[in-house]
Amino acid sequence: MIQSNYFQTNEDLQEHFNELIDWNEIVPIYENQFSDSKLYLER
Q1: Is 2 within 8 Å of 9 (Cβ atoms)?
Q2: pTM above 0.70, yes or no
Q3: In this structure, what is the dihedral angle of CA atoms 22, 28, 29, 34, given to the nearest 10 degrees?
């Protein structure tokens, strides 16, 4: 069993995750511009 969390102890990985990745660009593309949630708003 793994006792530690590699993400918590790796500053480079944290920097990429928190500062360098443009989540506002990636997430809408991955989620297809949230088209399924828009269906529920129209009801």
Answers
A1: no
A2: no
A3: 170
Q: Give 7's contacts (C-beta < 8 A, 6+ positions apart).
A: 13, 14, 17
List helix spans (H) across 1-43: 11-15, 23-30, 35-41
CB 16 within 8 A of CB 9: no
For the stretch 1-43, pLDDT in tens is: 677 888 889 999 999 999 999 999 999 999 999 998 888 886 6
C-alpha 30 chain-centroid distance: 10
Tokens of 21: 């990745």
